[in-house]
Amino acid sequence: MADKIFRVNMSDLSASVEEVPSGWMGLGGRGLTSTVVAAEVEPTCHPLGAGNKLVIAPGLLSGTQAANSGRLSCGAKSPLTGTIKEANSGGTSAQMLAKHGVKALIIEGLPQADKWYGLQVSAKGVTILEETELVGKGNYEVVEKLNGRLGEKCAVITIGPAGEMKLTAANISVKDPGSRLRSCGRGGLGAVLGAKRIKFIAIEATDAKVDIAKPEAFQQAGRAFAKALVDNPISQALGQYGTNVLVNIINEAGGLPTRNFTSGQFAGHESISGETMHDLIVERGGRPKHNCHPGCVINCSQIYPGKDKKYLTSGFEYESIWAMGADCCVDNLDHIAEADHLMDDLGLDTIETSVAFGVAMEAGVLSFGDGAGVCRMLREEIGRGTAIGRIIGCGAGSVGRAFGVTRVPVVKNQAIPAYDPRAIKGIGITYATSTQGADHTMGYTIATNILGVGGKLDPLSKEGQVELSRNLQIATAAIDSTGMCLFIAFAALDDPNCLPALIDMINARFGIALTADDVTNLGKTILKTERGFNLAAGFTSHDDRLPEFFRHEPIAPHNVVWDIPDAAIDSFWNF
Amino acid sequence: MADKIFRVNMSDLSASVEEVPSGWMGLGGRGLTSTVVAAEVEPTCHPLGAGNKLVIAPGLLSGTQAANSGRLSCGAKSPLTGTIKEANSGGTSAQMLAKHGVKALIIEGLPQADKWYGLQVSAKGVTILEETELVGKGNYEVVEKLNGRLGEKCAVITIGPAGEMKLTAANISVKDPGSRLRSCGRGGLGAVLGAKRIKFIAIEATDAKVDIAKPEAFQQAGRAFAKALVDNPISQALGQYGTNVLVNIINEAGGLPTRNFTSGQFAGHESISGETMHDLIVERGGRPKHNCHPGCVINCSQIYPGKDKKYLTSGFEYESIWAMGADCCVDNLDHIAEADHLMDDLGLDTIETSVAFGVAMEAGVLSFGDGAGVCRMLREEIGRGTAIGRIIGCGAGSVGRAFGVTRVPVVKNQAIPAYDPRAIKGIGITYATSTQGADHTMGYTIATNILGVGGKLDPLSKEGQVELSRNLQIATAAIDSTGMCLFIAFAALDDPNCLPALIDMINARFGIALTADDVTNLGKTILKTERGFNLAAGFTSHDDRLPEFFRHEPIAPHNVVWDIPDAAIDSFWNF
C-alpha cells in the first residue's frame, strides 16, 4: 500500500486523501513537516489564523520493526517563536499512522462555527466529528475516554486545556504504550491545534504492516543497528537513570542554570538527581526503566510513583526536572513530579512553563523554591485560564514583558533549556542559530562538550563550537526525518556500525540507495528550507542572538560570560 | 547663556553639565532626542536595562515667545516597539527647561539600590534626591505635592503607577499651565523612566529668558507666524470643538474604527462627537477652549466637567475618545472622560490602553460598550498591578498574545490609532513605515486625505499615498524639532506666510540662515537616523507591514481592504 497525504480542511470541514507529490517521496518526519510548511504556509501569516497549517508526519522508518523508530513529528509556524517549528515525540501514533499509510496529515483552515472537533484516522481517511464531552478535559482523561471509545490500542494525539486556550506554551501530547503521555513539547504547537478547534486526533488500531522493499536486508541491518544502540555506554546510562542522569553531571560542569540563570550550580542538586530519583522509584515500587514507544531498546523513560506508591508521572526528563528544580530552586522531587504531571495533563511544555515560573519568581509572583505554590498555580491559575495563568502559560518571554523583567532567558521568545551557554558554549551556538528558537535538541553539543561523545571539545573555549553545532544540527535534522529517537546519536557518533546500519534500513525499506553523503545533504537541505521560511517571515541574523544579560553577567562557578562574537555565530550558516 | 547638555547617571547617582557637541548645536526636540539615542544607545539593548537612555529635549524655539512652541520631546529605545521612539507633549516643562539653558537632559544607567528617586533641575544642574512620599501615587497627586514643595510655577515631568510598574503602555506626563496633565503618550517611555526608578523630574520656576540673536527680526516673524495660525480655518475649528471635531468627520468618511476594527462607522458617534462634547462642557460650566502650554493660539484643549460640574478631565483628544468610544463601543461620554482621567492619573497612553481594551473585549474579558467596567478595571486591575491589569497595561499586542486573538491592530506592537487604513489609505502608509510603530502623528495624511489641507487626495485610492505620507513624515520630523505643536502644519501647508515665518524665527533665535531646503533636509536626516537605529536593532521592511487581517477583512461601509502592495510601501524609503 502506497503512502498518501491525508488532508483536513477545517474551514469547510472536508477531508481528502491525496497522492504524495514526487518531491516529498523521500521525506519523513521533520524533513516532511518542514518541507510542507515551507511550501504551503505563508511565512508572514498569523500562527493562530486560517493561514497556518499543522503537519503531522511519522518518520521514514516509523511503523517498521527498526529499533527506536517511533517518533512523531508535528510542524507548523510557531505561535511562540514566529519561526517554522517541528517538535517530535514518542508514543504510539507515529507507528499507527505509518501502518495506515499516512505519509503526512495536513490540517488547514479554521472552522466557522464556535464548536470543537475530534479527528478519527484510519487507512480510509479522516473523519471529522463534533466533540463536546472532552472539551476542557486534561490529557490523561482524554486518553482514558478515547481508550473507552476506540479500544486500548488506538493511538491518540491530544491537546489539554492549555492548547484549547491557545497558550503559547501549549504542547501536543501523544499517548504512549501505557496510555500515559509523551509530548511534542516546544514552540506552542498545541495552540495551533487549539486555534483549529481540534481537541484530539484518534488513530484507529491496526495490525497492517508497512511495505518493506527488501525484507531480509532490512532485518539484517535492523539487528546491527539495535546492537549498536544497546552496546553504547550512554544508552546504558540512559536506561539506568533516565535523562536525569545529567543533573549531577551538568551541575559538576557548572552549567546547571539555577535561580533564573543567576548561577551554574544548584545546592539542592543531589535531591533531584537521576541517582536519587532511581532509588526513590525502586523504593516506591515504580519502574526505573520504561519505553515511550514500542521497539525502543534504550528505555530512558520511567514510571515515577508518589509517596502513596501510586502513579504520579512518567517520561520525567532531565530538562523538566532541571527547569522546575534548579531554575526555580525547588529541591523537592515530589513537587517537581507533581508539577510535571500537571503540566502534562494541562498540555504545557514543561521547559517553557517552568522557565516562565523562574522569571515569575524573579518578578516576585511567588518565591523561589515554592514547589507547592507552583502546583497550586498550575491547577488554579493556568488550569482555569486566569490572567496570571495566561501570562505564565504563554512562556518566559511573556512573563518578562508583563513584569518588566530584563533577565529573561529566551531566544526567539523560546525559553533556553537546561544547559547554560556561558559555561557550555557549543550549546549557545545551537540556541542562537537554531531555526526554531532556543532548543537543545536541535544540535546537542552537550554530547561532545560534556559527555565526550564524538570527540571532546572544551565547553569553556570559544574554538570549534560553531563547527560542532553545525555538524550536529545537520545530523539532527536528518535523524529527525527518520522517525528515530535522537538518542541514537550517541551510538551513531561513536560506533562505526550504527549509521551504516541506519542507512541500510532506509534503503531496504524503500528499495533505494542512499549514501551517508545523501543523508548529510538531506540534513543541510532541511536546515536551509527552515531558514528560508524564517527569512521570508522577517527573521535576520539579529534574531540569532542570546539575550543581553548573558554577555554582561558572569556565571558561577566559572565566572564566565557569553563571549562568542556575532560574526562567529553568523558563520554557522556558511555551508 | 549658552545651552548645555545636562546628564544624569543613575548607576552611580551622579549628574553633570556638559558643553553641547557641535554636531548637536542646530538640533532640538525630536531631532536632538533621536540623534542622541542613535549616538549613545546600543540598538539591541533591552529597553528596560542599563543600556537604554531617556533623552528629554525642548524644541529649537521652546522658551521663546513664538506661538505654540512649547512642546517637550522625550526619546529612548521604546519598550513597547523595540524601535527608537520620540513622544512629545505640551505643558510647561519645555519652556522652563529651555529657560534654564537645558539643551537636553540625558538620563542613563540604572540605580543599584531598591529605591526611588526624584530629579530637581535648575540652571545649575540636576539634583538627585531619594523619593518615598510620592511613590505609588497618581500623576495628579504628584503635581499637587510638587506644587506644594516648589511652588505653583514649577514644571513637572512625572510617571504614574503604570510607569513604576514598567507597563509598556506607560506614558510620561507633563504638568500643564493649570496643573493638569499632558502626555508624551506613545511607546511606553514611562516604563523607561520607571526602570530608572525616577518618579518625577521637577524643574524649578525661573524668569530667565532664552537668548535671541536678532530680537527684532524674531518679533516680526513671530507676529506673522501667529497670524497665520489664528487665521487658519482648521485652527479655528480645533479651537471651537477640540480635536474631537473629528468624530463626525471620520465617521462620515467610513474610517472610524469600531468594535475592535470590525466596522468603519459607529452608531453612537453623535453621543461622543466634538459638537456634543462642546455643548456639554458649556452646559456644565467647563471650558471648551484651553491651552496646553503658554503661548498657544489654537487652544484645542478643554476642561471637561463631570455631571457634578467638577473637573473631570482635560486635554480630551479625539484619538482617546475614539479609542475608548467607537473602538470599545462605549457611547457614554462621561464614562470615556472618567476613563481618560484615570489613564492620565495612572500614566497610561490612552490610545494604547483603550485599543488594548478593545482587543480584551473581543477576547471576552468584558463586554463591548461596558464603559463602567473599563473604569473599574483601570482602578482595580491596572491601578493595582494585577495580572489582567498588566496584560492590558502592556498594550493591544500583549492582550492579543495572552488571549490568542488574531485581530490585533498594531504595527511594530504599537496600537493603530483612530483612522482605519483600509478606508484612509495614506495613513496606512504612515502606520506601516513610521520609524516608531503605528502613529498618526508621524505623518498625518488625514490632512490631505480627508480635510483637504495641502491639496486633496482620494482616501480610497492607492495612488499618491506613499508620496503624501513621505512628504508629511519628513515635514513632521522637522516640525517636531522646533518645539512647535504639530497643528501648525495646517497653516504651514495652506498659508504661504507660515513656513517662512517659522524659519525666520529659528534664524533670528540662533543668528543663522536656514532655508526651506535646510528644513526639509533636517526632516530627512532625522528619519534616516531613526531608520538607521531600527535597522541596527534588527528591524527590516518585513516589520513595515499592517496586520494580516487588514488585507483579508473588508470594512464597512466602503467594504474595502488594505491593498497597497508591499513594494509600494517599501518605496517610501526612496529619498
Summarize the structure.
With 575 residues, chain A is an alpha+beta fold.
Can you put this structure into words, describing what you see?
2 copies of one chain form a homodimer. Chain A has 575 residues and is of the alpha+beta class. Chain A folds into 3 domains: 4-203, Aldehyde Ferredoxin Oxidoreductase,  A, domain 1 (4-Layer Sandwich); 212-241 and 421-575, Aldehyde Ferredoxin Oxidoreductase Protein, subunit A, domain 3 (Orthogonal Bundle); 251-400, Aldehyde Ferredoxin Oxidoreductase Protein, subunit A, domain 2 (Orthogonal Bundle). Chain A is 40% helix and 15% strand. Chain A is built from 24 helices and 17 strands. Chain A has a 6-stranded mixed sheet with strand order 2-1-6-3-4-5, sandwiched between helices. In chain A, strands 8-7-12-9-10-11 form a 6-stranded mixed sheet, sandwiched between helices. A 3-stranded antiparallel sheet of chain A has the order 13-14-15. In chain A, strand 10 (172-175) and strand 11 form a beta hairpin. In chain A, helix 17 crosses helix 19. The two termini of chain A are 38 Å apart. The model of chain A has no long low-confidence stretch (mean pLDDT 97). The interface between A and B is medium-sized, with 35 and 35 residues.
